[in-house]
Amino acid sequence: MNSLTWPAAAVILNLLPIASMASTTTGAGVDLQPYKGHALALLLVAAPSAGTNPTLATKLQTSPEASKITSVTFTGTGTGRLEIEAGPDPVAETITLTALTDVTTFSVVGSVSGAIGTATVGTRFTSAQVNLLITAGATTFVAGDAWAVPTTARTWTDLVAFTGQTSALTRQKKVVNLDSCPRYIRGVATLGGTNSPAYTGGLNLLVVED
What we know:
The chain is an all-beta fold. Helices cover 0% and strands 56% of the residues. It folds into two domains: 11-63 and 155-208, Jelly Rolls (Sandwich), CATH 2.60.120; 73-151, no CATH class. It contains no helices and 16 strands. The strands form three sheets. Strands 1, 2, 3, 4, 5, 14, 15 and 16 form an eight-stranded antiparallel beta sheet that branches. Strands 6-13-8-9-10 form a five-stranded antiparallel beta sheet, with no helix packed on it. Strands 7-12-11 form a three-stranded antiparallel beta sheet, with no helix packed on it. Strand 11 and strand 12 form a beta hairpin. 26% of the residues are buried.
């Protein structure tokens, strides 16, 4: 496989966006649940453009599916149901879901994250912090009905490290067995050196299902 040819069924998951890195960079968590088989983690980083004795250490981290929601409390009139789980990147906060005036939508607001989005009754809502589905019940929701959902931060564990980079262009790949991998994955690039070192590059996961 060369740089211009990809398997027809391949899916590319961006773990570290192509960008200039002048400090330690932690990518967003990615949910691996929809995928199976094997994947290639592809790292491409140009030679450093600045800095004295610059170094770049890049690795993959994973986190299990373990629940990060400690409780769910409802206040209000409606008898609908809430199905909710933590997303790839929950933080320690309380997420509040509040019915708006049309009673078919709920604001989703984190005490730390701030406004996360708007959830529609009957439609699955996904975000970095939470994934949820609100279902209407026999008694209609009214404006102000609310759930309070405390969440905790996810714990990440190193999976595999790439060879550290200093002064040259690097192209590296690592095989990841998705069938034995925890549910979530992310990339982390740690920058070292002095006088404002900087690298430009990115990390992708090429998923090719068996």
